[in-house]
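Two proteins, back to back. First:
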Amino acid sequence: MTSLLQHPAPLFLFLMVAAHLLEMLALLLDGRQLRHPLPPQLAAWVEEETWQKSQTYTRARHRLAFWEANWNLLVLLLFWFSGGFAWLDRSVSGWQLAPWLTGELYIAALVLGSYVCNLPFALYGTFHLEARFGFNRTTLATWLGDQGKMFALALLLGGPLLAVLLLVLQQAGTHAWMYGWATVTAFSLLLQGILPRWILPLFNRFEPLPEGELRQAILDYAARIDFPVGQIFTMDGSRRSSKANAFVTGFGQQRRIALFDTLIQQHTQGELLAVLAHEVGHARHHHLPKMLLLGTLHTGLLFGVLALLLPWPGLYQGFLLESMPLHAGLVFFGLVIGPIDLFAGILFKALSRRFEYQADQFAVRSAPEPGALISALRTLAKENLTNLMPHPLSVLLHYSHPPVGQRITAMEQALR
């Protein structure tokens, strides 16, 4: 144990490779699951042609995920063991800038490098894979515009946040982790307020739902269950993809309902109200505040562990640095804690799946057509070529929503 603490590179390598192999195992088992025939409860509403196309789409996505994950691990290991982290630190430190600005440049360079390494996979996924199955509607001009906006937001929002964090951790002494935690928490709450009003409209056009039968039906439903509604919008999701969705943001009279235009095109009014009822269920059960609270506590725990690891020389030596710059410590902490924090992710996703079941049950009880959410989920699954039979390990690691078949079964049982 003492040897590992003094020379922790093998331990760090083991953690990262173990997490990677677990991800690869989930992909492998998910692929094998596709060989099984559809169970009767799914075969009753999924046409054979749709099932075959869904299998092909899922396998294509798995192949892309496989190559991307392996490429990322290879690049990380090559950069790490060739002394890349130390070289980059010497390069940015040689400019003799303020420590916080040196840290900003160090982390920005790594983020930009990671972005460039993943760029071919992003382009292939959007313009080949998604287009091959008829989902992609994003033009190159739209995609480039989105990238530019994301870079601008990273500079305007992420840059100041990182600068404050670096200054706090450098100067706040033994309680720095608490101030860092408070900083990130305040930023997260601020983001909840500005995201629907200022950030999302940068990427999509939101227009008030026109007066008519659907709008009136939504208002009548909201009034019947005493659910305050601020504004109802349609979102031009079809500008980028044929996939459909809906969401509710904000609280009280500031609550905003957004329906993808593709959702309105693909579903009946009863199904749309059922989808909305599901989103209302999340609000009624206070799922968002609960997840925010748990996320805040989780962030606090991470900052507490960060405070313990930053003064440890082994954190830096494991990545071949002789000095102990704060900015490098933040990066190395993220790399080391990621595989360990996988278990927290499993717990959060399990809770999220439970919340989805609760929202489904609320929709069954309150929607004007109790069974409409079932037909809506069936349509969504077929239109989006959803993986109908994911392996339990894949669900455990990645699924924030239960598999669609399990959701439908739970609602059918509630309707009996």
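And the second protein:
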Amino acid sequence: MSQAYVQKKSLSKFIQPFEARCQNVQEFLDGLGPLTGDISVVELNDPVGPVLELEECQLVVSKETEDGAKVLNRLRRQKGLVEMVVHICGVVEENGRKVSSSEIRESETSTSM
């Protein structure tokens, strides 16, 4: 998400700049080993991003945002584009608790005060 878009999030002042978040994602992907195909991490300025303009793309979402991916695929079909492949990743810690970036920021804020 772009800095402008991030401003709408809870405790936005604690969210790293896009460049830092992008680098973290890239380092994570590099740690997975060789991957096939072109992988691009794109800055989002709105909930839709570039998916209605790209001929082909794939999307990684959480279970909580899966419905949004379905909406995007419906919009792609309406525009005559092929549906995206949607990858759903887990957001659960080993203890079974859901990982929430908002909760992490709130926790970090309360411990730093």
